[in-house]
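From the pipeline queue, job 12 of 40. The input is one protein chain; the requested action is below.

Action: predict structure.
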Amino acid sequence: MAQGIPSDLLMNATLINDLASVAKDAALLQGVLMRVKESPNSSEVVTYAPFTLFPTPVPKAPFLQAMAVQTHYNTLVDKISQDPDFLEAALASTIAVDDFTARLFKIHQQVLKEGRLQSIVLGLNRADYMLDQKEDGHTSLKQIEINTFAASFGGLSSRMPDVHRHILRVAGRLEESQSIIDNNPAVGLAKAVAKAWELYGSKRAVVMFLVEENQRNALDQRFIENELWKRNIATIRKRFEDVAEAGNLDQDKRLFVDCQEVAVVYFRNGYMPQNYGSEQAWEARLMMECSLAVKCPDIGTHLAGTKKVQQVLAQPGVLEHFFPDQPQIVAQVRATFAGLYTLDVGAEGDKTVAMALATPNRFVLKPQREGGGNNIYGQEICEVLGKVKDSAERTAFILMDKVQPVPTQNYLLRRGTPLQITNCLSELGFFGTYVRHGKDMVMNDCVGHLLRTKSSEQLDGGVAAGVAVLDNPLLF
């Protein structure tokens, strides 16, 4: 395959159109589906999730590097979540200017004040990377972020290998079809949830998915739900409003919603300010955090995934704090860091501002937000920093080196859009799971991967945000 597409197929328009039709049918049959609304007044419909016509070539070495370091990232996130002094110091400047992070930190303080009731910790995260190519041609793996809250597409990505295998077989690329590796993060994610449920110790209790009213990727979550049902673990889906209206804690702080005991709260909603539409939503979050239920993520793990923590981890000596006398692990983790710079008030922050204003195209300005579509690029960095460069408001952001991947070419299959060859960039994610019971880490795994591809014209991206599409790596 050359630049992402077999060279002998590149100009064969008739075959490409036939393959696209085959690909859509394969995606529908495999359940690679998303919910959409055709118009504001129409009911929801189901269509295939967007994906690439062909898998994208990915070098094997950085792929294996990211897979190997994932369990260390799991351990790191867990250690950060259990270190209130570190979280307070790392987030001090941010919570002074960012109301959302401050509100989350207030819940964290309340939980610490009342005392952590639950010794079971469940982590489902996803570390995302891009391949950075320097002018001398050297390529290296660089982390974009680690998602500790509602890391998505473990379900749909579990079905994508069969879709691309089928496409390549139809295209006569049998050898390449056999080179697509197995991938089933949904099973691994469900296994970790099931372990936490088992440790909770009540067979009558349920796993509660805390969700939005309307979620485009609800079907992605159903894969995990189905895996839990296979293990005879009941699941329910509730909103913040449902918990506020029908939730309560008994005298032992066990959480009940609609009279059902909840063993695990799996947050798929609650990572953006707009997710909390009322004061009752915040009260529901606090009630869940103070309950005996296992939270995924708990409030400490939520804060561990903030952009500010990501930036602080890149400072000298910080990784050593979490991995004392483990220089090999420190080196493995640090090797994946891109350049990260503070905007705290002071000489170092002033230097960062000057650097960003002088060469904005080298950087990405990141607010403390998740979900895609929040990052700031290019001239807009100058506009934003120009307004806040001399005030503490700039500490609501961090600055990161812009990763420079090599574009490939592919076709992006998206409902209602024309089929055309596109210059693309890809982002590779690895799903990590861990379960800790007291001081014992009873599970710590890398359970699969996700490849997302977007047009190189798009700066920010995400499948749920409507920019990126699902893909598979073809290792070489």
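Job complete. The longest helix spans residues 60-81.
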